[in-house]
Amino acid sequence: MVQPFDHIHPNKIRQILLLATLLFLGIILWQEMYFMLGGFLGAIVLYVLMRRPMLYLVYKRKWKHGIAATVLMVLSLGIIIYPFAWVINLLIERITPVITDTAQLQASLNKIDTFLREKYDFDLLSAGNIEKVSGYATNIGGKVISTTLSTLTNLLVMYFILWFLLMKVGHVQIWLRKALPVKKANADKVILEIREMVKSNAIGIPVLGVIQGIVAIIGYSLFGVEEPMLWGVITGITSVIPFIGTMAAWVPLAVLAFANGDQGNGIALTLWGLLVIGGSDNVFRFILQKYLADVHPVITVFGVIFGLNLFGFLGIIFGPLLISLFILMTRIYFDEFVHPGELTYKEE
Predict the structure, then answer these.
(1) Using the 8-state DSSP alphabet, how is residue 64 labeled?
(2) Distances from the Cα of 189 to the Cαs of 51, 95, 172, 293, in angstroms?
(3) CA distance 91 to 85
(4) How confident is the model at residue 24 (pLDDT cuts 50, 70, 90)?
(5) Residues 107, 114: contact at Cβ < 8 Å?
(6) 233 phi and psi, to 5 degrees?
(7) Taking a C-beta distance cutoff of 8 angstroms, is the pair 189, 345 a contact?
(8) For the whole model, what pTM was predicted?
(9) How far apart are CA 246 and CA 231, in angstroms?
(10) Axis-axis angle for helices 127-167, 65-100 (nearest 10)
């Protein structure tokens, strides 16, 4: 009697065993190296942004790979570190006096609390709310320390990987095209999607944040907000928060103005936040989309939401990318196996 296993070719058995081994090793590597994921993703972002300058320096200017890679990495480090250092220094410099002046801080909170209780019957300074805030503050303190250590580790990992990517700048895209299990035309579409999405988010999101911060500073200066520069920076940072966005910055300022009895500035801040700060996002996003990838807002919003949970800060870049790649790979699957050649793609 013929055994069922007699119908399985030995090569199939070896293939299954090899795939099982690869899957097993991949799971182990993922579990042990997940904490360095931010470094890997950061290296990919910087490589995409530096690829053209690196090719120009190496093949047009005839620089050596090592010198070109070193110059670009030093420049990128300055571009990354200096803005963050400036923002952190500004926040510490401006927030410290406010925190240390407990009387002024308590007076401001009391005014907001009185206003909210009288207008909306909401007790901001209730025992329950204060307890929740204290719990959040404790958790945030611990997370800040762990995040700082993680950031330093990922920064080292990022530049370590980036060095090797730049040294092989002429071969990375060729290897990726060969490694993807699809025909060349579809592999090129995947590579194009990755490049466009990374550039769109890595450049577009910070630029939009800076623009909204500048617009906010103008309004805050006009409508009597103390420390307009500080609140402008906070507004730019909060622009990446899904759904809420810049409202996390200008709404408390408007509420405080109403609580102080300054109805004019309160109304002005509300209108400025809704129409000018919020509107600037739509206007300048439309302009940037002409020069960067045309990403649908739904993909951006939902991509950022799950991307922040999965990848941390870099999720604002790779969350939308994963959604776009999922949609693209679905279309490629149909193009490869269901209706070959019938699907159309966006113009490149």
Answers:
(1) -
(2) 18, 47, 16, 13
(3) 10
(4) very high
(5) no
(6) -65, -45
(7) yes
(8) 0.71
(9) 10
(10) 170
